[in-house]
Fold:
Amino acid sequence: MNWPVYADYKESGVAWLGEVPAHWSLRRLGSQFAERKTTVSDQDYEPLSVTMSGIVAQLDTAAKTDNGENRKLVRAGDFVINSRSDRKGSAGLAVRDGSVSVISTVLKPRAISGRFAHHLLRSAAFQEEYYRFGSGIVADLWSTRYSAMKMIRLAIPTAAEQENIADFLDRETAKIDALIDKQNQLITTLREDRTATITHAVTKGLNSEVETIGSGAAWLGSIPAHWTAPQLGMHAAVGNGATPSRERVDFWTSGTVPWLNSSHVNRDEITDADQFVTAKARTECHLPLVSADSVLVGLTGQGKTRGMASILRTPATINQHLAYLTPTGSSLDSEYLHNVLVSAYRVLRDVSEENGSTKGGLTCAALRKLRIPVPPVDEQRRIVAYLCAATARIDLLTRKSAEVVSTLREYRSALITAAVTGKIDVREAA
Structure:
């Protein structure tokens, strides 16, 4: 949508602002806010988290500190921003009193609308400028102190315009967020449909009229009568790898043997590696070279990669947090096995507890005992061909929805920046 622009502009002299409406004033951030530095206890003030979605009740996943007495006070109406560059975009207006980590900067609006500031200081353009004023030794420890932050130049509209802009952005971003939510719900449904399609094919087959029998495995239920449900270890070699010492330069420098960690099982296929070890490391650390078309499964990962499965397309070594499953004969197709393990993801996440693991991880022994459905190999290949076509259609729809989400997010970001820097005039927007 095309929004109107202001009649007159002036050069701000500030790169991130560019031209601004002629009647807007240029002010240092420190003139619009007062820093709140009061130290409080999380026993007296509810602990809050500073997230990309704003200021919320402390997340269960937030890093906890033993020093709950050393937190910063936040009052309703304060603006809070995480000073660390690895938390870029984590900021927002607090809607209730509480306390935040000392790495956050707490600002009390004094000459600016808090609602306007919420959009201005969360805009992509301001965030880049904010971190440009930072300092640090390495990128992930880069932070911006208030002493530098207060020098950032802002373009300030009239008080009435600030409220106009806040109203406009509240309304328009809510519309965009609703569209994003719908697309994300569709993506979730498509992913569930994909898993259900795979599960039905590898556990029930493609012929709904076939006679069935009990498999003897709770997760499988009944299977076609001409199938079997043996333990995985009867049809595949199962093992894991290791991590060569990082202190041994001769294990890593000029390495040519691909080495994979558990992050790689986040994708269906593994075609390349980003780390390589030497032949010497492989020999001395007894690293098995896993053959192409083996299936890799995440053994650990606290529910992130644990239980995820990928098919390996190039020979590689692996670390101790991955297991390889290599069919040992002609009775098990590796593509079919991969689909079985994708279907068994939730079972693989839970099987560690059933088998007595103390750290919430899978073991190679548990994988060997997993009962899997095994049709005749020619039927396995027909199932694989069917799933290639069926999942390709679902994946295409998923990608299109993801592209819509990306486009909407880009538009949302651009709209906020345009409004808070005066590139569009929203005073008359209904």
Notes: The longest strand covers residues 104-109. The chain has ten helices and 23 strands.
